[in-house]
Design brief:
By secondary structure, this protein is α/β, with parallel strands linked by helices. It has 15 helices and 14 strands.
Amino acid sequence: MTKIAIAGNSGPKVRSDCQITLELTNTKGLQIEMKSKVASMFGDDILKQCNELLKFFEIKNAKLSIDDKGALPFVIAARFEAAVKQIIDTDKEFWPEMINENTYKSKRDKFRFSRLYLPGNTPSMMLNAGIHNPNGIILDLEDAVAPAKKDEARLLVRNALRTVNYYGAERMVRINQGERGIEDLKYLIPHNVHLLLVPKCESADYIKRLDKEIEILKKQHKVKEPIYYMPIIESALGVEKAFEIAVSSTNVVSLAIGLEDFTADLGTKRTKEATESFYARTRLVNAAKAAGIQPIDSVFSDVGDMEGLLENVKTSKGLGFEGMGCIHPRQIRVIHEGFAPTKDEIEKAQKIVLAFEEAEAKGLGVVSLGTKMIDPPVVKRALKTIVLALELGLISKDWRTNND
């Protein structure tokens, strides 16, 4: 009895992907059929890779068909492996070597103004995402992937984490819910992921379980760098549990809110005025600030309304949020400009910091600026603004000299 497996995508609108059809046969030998839009330039390379993959998985009698739409080697490898694992019980994994650009690290307090969602089973959208300079890219294994394609997406995301250059953007993955999310981990933790988004989070217990499972995988694969979490609050219960979730692990660095699912849970409609979610957003901000982590706002779904997006960012920043999600690259610039400190905010922060440093140098216990007293929290906020302005290149390192 022959066994046939199909993996990948094909069709007139598919780009940078391929569809693999693998049939195990009783006839001795291998047959490879290839249809490719780039056959004249890369046909020999594709055939060579296919033969290497067949040898790696110890397949000796089979018919392999590849319908190529300009797929890169890491995509072909992922699609081939997905097909193999549909019909062969094997623990072998094939992934490309990680390119040098993908060894950069993240940090706990990295500013996260923008995070760009990319469907985890669509390679064409992964390849050039970094050139738009988002603070983070999200390879999405959850809502953006059809249930029947989730196993394939894991392999593709794993390979993308190892090979695609995102130009310094934090490498994020939104895992699935529940047990499927736990299963996702083994495809991510050994492969240089920086941060996991935890969807529809309603429990500190789930975050604690992530800690345990990830620690096991880190030890197995000798991963030394921390893996950070961004739980997404998307229900009424999640809102009420926000602080518990925020302090459930030292790996939680931010809390995000997902307003589409939240408003659905309330049984109401999401509006641009966002009055229906005002309580939830402020509750999440308060929980995050109390825990000492970043509150991150939801996505703005109208990708054509840049003015509306800017107003939304200003409102979000005014509530205390420190970033938001985006679903199209054109939103990134507006989000960055909206969350960046303004010229007035920077100048005020500089005056506060200089006044504090002058008072400290004189041994004064009281700090004042003009007729106003400056409390320690105000100084702390001013220092954060200065650090952010330096990182964004809005002021130079010798700003103190320029303000003398």
